[in-house]
Predict the structure of HTH tetR-type domain-containing protein.
Amino acid sequence: MTTAKGTARRAALLDAAEATLIAGGHSALSLRAVADTAGVRLGHLQYYFPTRDALVSELLARILQRSLDEVAAAVPSSPDAPLGDLVAVLLAQQTDAELVRVFVELWALAARDESVATAVRAFYVQYADLVAARIGAHAPDVPAEEVRARAETFIALIEGSSLMRSGVGGSPSGATDGVILRTALGILTGR
């Protein structure tokens, strides 16, 4: 049975793990580094997360669920809601350089660790499901395969643009944002 105090300690340790991941990348994400960041003894951290894999697994689940919740909140529930609002919300998230760094590190981990890759793929399936549902509501006569292809292409555009827009690989620009918005809307609407 987990107590409120135990839940709060786990959350604080996961906060420290996320900070360590952002500051030093996936290679710096050791149990000792996380314990140091959290200001606790290694044994204390290992009580909650006995191995690095256990820590990474729970950290990954937390980060991906938080991001999926944000995407779900950004997807308008009404088929009459402007699709541009969805694009604008997702693009606004990309100005958070720390969030983008977390995803860059998750992608790097996924390239080396099949359990991380499995979790990341499951996240993107859910993300695509949300976008596909929105596209399908907007264009109910479009075949499901086309809807899915549009959703996945839209996600590829949005995720790829995060590297340029976040300051990680470039800087945001009004002109580029305009092209991204027009392209994203074209993908979503099929125009």
